[in-house]
Each structure stands twice: as structure tokens, then as C-alpha cells.
Amino acid sequence: MATVFFSYSHRDQILRDEMEIHLAMLKRQGFIETWHDRRITAGEEFDKAISKNLEEADIILLLVSSDFLASNYCYDIEMQRAMEKHEKGESYIIPVILRPCDWPSAPFGKLLVMPTDGKPITKFPDKDDAFLEVVNAVKQTITRLQLRQNSTPPSKSYGSAVKPQILDIPRSSNLHIRKTFSDRDREQFVEESFEYISNFFENSLAELSNRNPEVDTHFKRIDANHFSAIVYIRGKKATECRIWIGEIGGISRFFRSDIAYSSNASGSDNSINESMPIVDDGYALFLQPLGMAFFASQQNVKKLLSQQGAAEYFWDILLRPLQQGST
To answer: In this structure, what CATH number is given to the domain that contains residue 63?
Structure first.
């Protein structure tokens, strides 16, 4: 399995999240795992964690924008080390142009950039087309890694799930088989889902405030497993929530693998307005609303939600008082 490292400016986090979503099939098929600094857990040293994962990366995605070029950390530390590893043949770099900027003047300007001809992703009528180009570039790079591994003494294992020549070979697309998910699979999925929802809320709150002059927002990461969100209108609290991972020792064992929602930002783990257990369909893991929210329809309750779908579901609960005009 190849490791993909995201080097990016936090101002581009929304685009980074979209890029990671588009790589989901490669992750599900066991070809790649991804890492970025939002994976750093409480107690880890920031610089050491980034350095360690950058050194171990097989593919480095430079998510390039004016903010990336202006960032001393991105440009002087991550990018410079990535170029050194690329030139030594230790890693592959794929520069991805997110927004218009003077990227040809950078050291990676001599490399083949994505999307084609360096057209910024934000300039595409449909960004999905641009992200798909990047996914295809990652696939080609994985093939190069596999060919290099097959032609040299093995120094690193990419896992039995990865087979050489994944591109340009005739094969069926019907490759799904049923599997049993372990407790560790579920724990990892709930942790990744919580991180996605946390980032989704932080970015969405910032954009909500940017687009509405009368709105102010507050996002607070309480700890590794909890965050809160508050929306103010003209200085008055209009809606709020608290979202967390249910744990053993909570209100019951049933909630230990849930992501829970409370409409009280300062409440306790015993106060829940909605919860999403981790479920599976025999092939993949999902989140499924219990339907505790007062407006939840039976159709929503029956849905198996992706991480993005779960984040949107919780976001809808938060915004509903504003959109109904109850404030």
C-alpha cells in the first residue's frame, strides 16, 4: 500500500477535503492510505509528526495556491524536502494547482503538474473533472511504484492488496466480496468520520460568517473526541451544537461507536438529540441516523450515509432554526 502525503495551506482545507474524497476508491481498494496534519492527535509534536510522515511518503501531493507559496512551512520545509526526496527517487511529487498563482517560478515548476497544463482546479466549470485528472495521475504513479518495486530488491511492502499493472488491463469491475469488519475497523472509521465532520463544521461556519455580515460563528475543539459550534445573529446566540464520539462508560454501551449530536453546546454526554451508529452493508462501513432529531424522516433514518452525508445531516440540524426563521 502506497502512502499519499498532502502538503497544503490550511486556507485550502476545503479543497484538500474534496481531493481526499475523490481518492476514496483507491483507499477502499487498498492501493493507498493518506496522511495530512489533521491526522495529528492530541499530545503529538506537530513538527515531528509531519516530518515522520513526509519521510515515509511514497507520493507527495503539493496542493498549490498563493497561500501555499506564501507559507514558510509549506514552501521552505515541506516542499523543499519533498523535492529532495523526489530527486533521489525516494518519493514521487504530484503538484496540484488549486488556485491561480505564480507556480511556474517555483522549484516544482519543472515537473508535470495537474490538472493538465496547470489549469487551476477552481477554474474548471465542474471541479469534479479536475479532481478526476488528479486521481488518474495518482493511479499512474502507483503503477510506476509497483514497476520499480518489481524490478529492484524489495525494500518496502505495499501490501498484498496491490497487484502490479492496475492500469490499462482488461478486467471486471465486479470485484466486491463480502467481508467481516473488526472492532478496529469500526473504531478507525468512527475516528476518521469524526475528524471529517469536525473539519466540515469548522470550514462551513467560517464560510457562513463570510457570506452573511450579520452572522458570527464560533467553533471550538474541546478535545480529541468533542467539538462545539455556535452561530450568533447580530450578537445573539441563534443555534448551537456539540458533537462527539460516544465511548465506553457513556450513557450506555450502545453508544460507544456512535457519533452523537446535542443541541446544547455546553451540555454533557448524557444529553443527546441525535446519534449515528456505525453500520455496514457487508461491503463497506457507513453511518446511519437513529432518527432522534425531531425533523428526521423515515427516509433519512433508513439511509446509510457517507462521512460527507453524515456531516451534511448534522449541519442541517444546526441550521434548521435559522432556515425556519425561528430566530
So the answer is: 3.40.50.10140
Give the pLDDT mean for 286-303: 67
Residue 110 Cα distances to 68, 87, 301, 307, angstroms = 17, 12, 51, 37
Task: Please spell the DSSP secondary structure of 71-107, one letter per residue.
Answer: -HIIIIIIIHHHHHHHHTTSSEEEEEE-S---GGGSG
Any residues with CB less than 8 A from the CB of 214 and at least 6 apart, and which? 233, 234
Provide the whole-model pTM. 0.51
| Final residue in a domain of this structure, among 131, 151, 171 | 151
* Residue 91 counted as domain residue: yes
DSSP state of 311: H
Does residue 13 sit in the same domain as residue 146?
yes
Q: What pLDDT is attached to residue 151? A: 58
Give me 311's grid cell. Answer: 456531516
pLDDT per position as a tens digit, 218-241? 999 999 899 999 999 999 999 999
Q: What single string gives the DSSP state of each residue in 103-169? A: GGGSGGGGSPPBSGGG--GGGSSSHHHHHHHHHHHHHHHHHHHHHHHHHS---S---TT--S--SS-
- Decide if 118 contacts 106 (C-beta within 8 A): no
d(CA 58, CA 89): 10
